């Protein structure tokens, strides 16, 4: 059974999928089957941080309702993220990095030439 960490690893508690589905259904009609499908990518992990569930929930609500409702859900659960919010991560040759300040000119040129996709 998966464990969910809300604040500290020692405070992990068992994940209750029915409770999660019920919380999502306050915002949009989402089936347990849809939630189970969305959580497949986390099958290899025994413990998850609650922010993973918030991300999954936000995506499911956006698919089944609208962007405004998904933003409302996210804002109500934003307390589980760092105060600074999200930091953009880039993947270059297998490494995840946040900012470009330590990149050499060639890597900066490679990044600027990429096609940008909106999320």
Description:
- The protein is of the alpha+beta class and 119 residues long.
- It folds into two domains: 3-84, no CATH class; 87-119, no CATH class.
- The chain has five helices and five strands, in the order ββααβααββα.
- The chain has helices at residues 17-24, 32-38, 50-64, 67-76, 105-113; strands spanning 3-5, 13-14, 47-49, 90-92, 95-97.
- The chain has a three-stranded mixed beta sheet. The protein has a two-stranded antiparallel sheet with strand order 4-5.
- Helix 3 packs antiparallel against helix 4 (67-76).
- The two termini are 32 Å apart.
Jot down its keywords.
single chain, 119 residues, alpha+beta, three-stranded mixed β-sheet, two-stranded antiparallel sheet, 41% helix, extended
What's the gyration radius in Å?
17 Å
Number of helices: 5
Major pleated sheet:
3 strands, mixed
The neighbouring-strand order within the major sheet is 2-1-3
Counting DSSP E segments of at least 2 residues, the number of strands comes to 5
Q: What count of structural domains?
A: 2
Tell me what portion of residues adopts beta-strand conformation.
Answer: 5-15%
The assigned structural class equals: alpha+beta
Return residue spans where pLDDT drops below 50 for at least 5 consecutive residues. Answer: none
In short:
The protein is built from five helices and five strands; from the N terminus they run ββααβααββα.
């Amino acid at each position: 059974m998966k464990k969910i960490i809300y604040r500290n690893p020692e405070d992990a508690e068992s994940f209750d999928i029915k409770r999660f589905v019920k919380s999502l259904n306050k915002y949009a009609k989402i089936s347990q089957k849809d939630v189970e499908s969305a959580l497949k990518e986390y099958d290899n992990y025994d413990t998850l941080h609650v922010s993973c569930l918030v991300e999954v929930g936000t995506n499911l609500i956006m698919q089944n309702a609208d962007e405004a409702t998904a933003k409302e859900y996210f804002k109500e659960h934003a307390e589980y993220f760092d105060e600074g919010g999200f930091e953009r991560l880039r993947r270059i040759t297998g490494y995840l990095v946040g900012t470009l300040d330590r990149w050499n000119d060639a890597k900066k040129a490679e990044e600027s030439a990429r096609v940008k996709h909106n999320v």
